[in-house]
Specification:
By secondary structure, the chain is an all-beta fold. The chain contains two helices and 21 strands. The longest helix has 5 residues. Its main location: membrane. One of its GO terms (molecular function) is long-chain fatty acid transporting porin activity.
Length: about 400
């Protein structure tokens, strides 16, 4: 049931960091920790050090609120109230105390859900965007020594896009035309990590998640225009598009002060510079319908994260954390489909052992995007974006 839910949200650029409830509660830290099956995402090298086999699944309903104030006006446009549902699911198995473990993860590292409606000032730039990227990652992890372990996984991505925008061609009733580009595709990549345990409380992790080029072939290009110009927008029509999903390099530290307190910190570099253009190549072109090449020119971005966990006993865990992420969209290239900006966030979490082999974990995140005033070079849309994000989350873990 979790696997058929739409994975729709974005964080830095359109990257999603909702890969594990324990990790969210601790400020999205996890590269230098071995807590549960989410190590498949955060650091496959840590997976072999997990003391038990497990199966877990979680979901993080996301409430994204964004507002746009056009330059020189008092008007305000708001995104529709839609709830995104990023999810994660992991399974880890292997002989107890063995030098190896295997696992599989299904998670949502990238996506976007934005709906401004069809009556706002930027409707010719975008009305709505629904971008999904679901990764399937079989993984193996091995212990090289008492302190050092490594792991890697193959990534298969199933991605899709559904983009609508208005066309400045009105019918007899004054309604604008509309273009909808809808399609799905696939891509391939990998995830590898190294994990080092000093056995003196300090653990260190390094992880690299590769770029995944997602190619969409034979997407549907649907144009609703007045009958007088329909011949200039041939139907049926298809398009091709490529969406480069960037690589991420992470360094993480974990430190167990004692049996009750655990601290963690992560630093992440995201290679967003691969996202230069949002391009659509139409199968049938006319003088009025040419292939679309919209510049994005993203730059590499970083984030820093920190968190802590306190366990008063074996049944409960209390978590908190926070972080800061820089914007990937450069000045002049901010778009309403992803109104990117520098941001900070705070998180909290609660873990409860409901039964001998069953754990329940809760998390909550508040994310604040700093207001950003921009004039887009391509569309000349000018104004100020302000956005907030609210994300509760829950997961269940069965371990043996």
């Amino acid at each position: 049931m979790l696997c058929i839910l739409p994975a729709l949200t974005f964080a830095q650029g359109f990257q999603v960091n909702l890969a594990g409830q324990k990790q969210i509660g601790m400020g999205h830290t996890g590269t230098g920790l071995a807590q549960d099956g989410a190590s498949i995402f955060f650091n496959p090298g840590a997976m072999v050090t997990l003391p038990e086999n497990s199966v877990q699944a979680g979901i993080s309903p996301l409430f994204f609120k964004s507002a746009f104030n056009p330059a020189g006006t008092n008007a305000t446009y708001n995104t529709s109230d839609k709830v995104a549902t990023p999810f994660e699911a992991y399974a880890v198995f292997g002989p107890k105390g063995s030098w190896w473990k295997a696992g599989i993860g299904v998670y949502t590292p990238f996506g976007g859900l934005t709906d401004w409606g069809n009556n706002w000032q930027g409707k010719y730039a975008v009305e709505s965007l629904n971008l999904k990227a679901i990764y399937f990652q079989p993984t193996i992890s091995v212990r090289l020594s008492k302190s050092l372990s490594i792991g890697a996984g193959f990534v298969y991505n199933r991605g899709s896009v559904d983009l609508t925008r208005a066309i400045p061609l009105s019918n007899s009733s004054g309604q604008d035309g509309q273009a909808e580009l809808k399609g799905s595709g696939k891509g391939y990549g990998w995830n590898a990590g190294v994990y080092f345990d000093t056995h003196k409380g300090l653990t260190i992790g390094v992880d690299y998640r590769s770029k995944v080029n997602t190619t969409i072939n034979d997407g549907n290009a649907i144009f609703k225009v007045p009958a007088s110009v329909q011949a200039s927008f041939p139907q049926p029509n298809t398009f091709k598009a490529g969406i480069p999903l960037p690589s991420t390099t992470s360094l993480g530290l974990g430190y167990a002060l004692n049996k009750k307190w655990l601290l963690a910190a992560d630093v992440n570099l995201v290679n967003w510079s691969v996202y230069k253009t949002l391009a659509f190549d139409y199968a049938s072109n006319t003088a009025a319908l040419q292939d679309t090449y919209s510049p994005r020119n993203y730059k590499n971005a970083f984030s820093v994260r920190g968190g802590a966990q306190y366990k008063p006993d074996n049944q409960w865990a209390v978590r908190a954390g926070g972080g800061y992420a820089s914007a990937a969209a450069q000045a002049g290239y901010v778009t309403p489909e992803v109104p990117d900006a520098n941001r900070y966030y705070v998180t909290a979490g609660l873990g409860y052992q409901a039964a001998k082999r069953l754990d329940i974990d809760f998390s909550f995140e508040f994310e604040r995007l700093l207001s950003r005033t921009q004039t887009n070079i391509e569309t000349q849309l000018s104004g100020t974006f302000k956005s907030n994000v609210y994300i509760p989350g829950i997961s269940l873990t069965y371990h043996w």
